[in-house]
Amino acid sequence: MTFTAHINVMPLKELLDPQGKAVMSGLKNLGLGQVQDVRIGKHITLQIEAASQEEARQIAENACQKLLANQVMESFEVHIQ
């Protein structure tokens, strides 16, 4: 069975997000001061061949831990469809 894993990787809240700060500054310059915070991450989609949804989740989480996310600076969430 083929599953789709949607993975969101974001910088840890405790760390500075320079891209987010730059976008925040740009938004304020455009007159959009109502925006209170910006965090920029990445969205990754994987097509996974697995016997079950749980197996697909384990494969996706393994990929995140080994390659897709730097766990010192980033957190990740996996959603399987």
From TrEMBL:
EC annotation from Swiss-Prot or TrEMBL: 6.3.5.3
Entry's Gene Ontology BP terms: 'de novo' IMP biosynthetic process
GO cellular component: cytoplasm
Localisation: Cytoplasm
Catalysed reaction, written as an equation: N(2)-formyl-N(1)-(5-phospho-beta-D-ribosyl)glycinamide + L-glutamine + ATP + H2O = 2-formamido-N(1)-(5-O-phospho-beta-D-ribosyl)acetamidine + L-glutamate + ADP + phosphate + H(+)
Single GO molecular function: ATP binding
Keyword ATP-binding: yes
Keywords recorded for this protein, A-Z: ATP-binding, Cytoplasm, Ligase, Nucleotide-binding, Purine biosynthesis
One Pfam family from the record: PurS
Pathways involved: Purine metabolism; IMP biosynthesis via de novo pathway; 5-amino-1-(5-phospho-D-ribosyl)imidazole from N(2)-formyl-N(1)-(5-phospho-D-ribosyl)glycinamide: step 1/2
Subunit structure: Part of the FGAM synthase complex composed of 1 PurL, 1 PurQ and 2 PurS subunits.
Family stated for the protein in its record: Belongs to the PurS family.
Function: Part of the phosphoribosylformylglycinamidine synthase complex involved in the purines biosynthetic pathway. Catalyzes the ATP-dependent conversion of formylglycinamide ribonucleotide (FGAR) and glutamine to yield formylglycinamidine ribonucleotide (FGAM) and glutamate. The FGAM synthase complex is composed of three subunits. PurQ produces an ammonia molecule by converting glutamine to glutamate. PurL transfers the ammonia molecule to FGAR to form FGAM in an ATP-dependent manner.
NCBIfam families for this protein: phosphoribosylformylglycinamidine synthase subunit PurS, PRK05974.1
Protein name: Phosphoribosylformylglycinamidine synthase subunit PurS
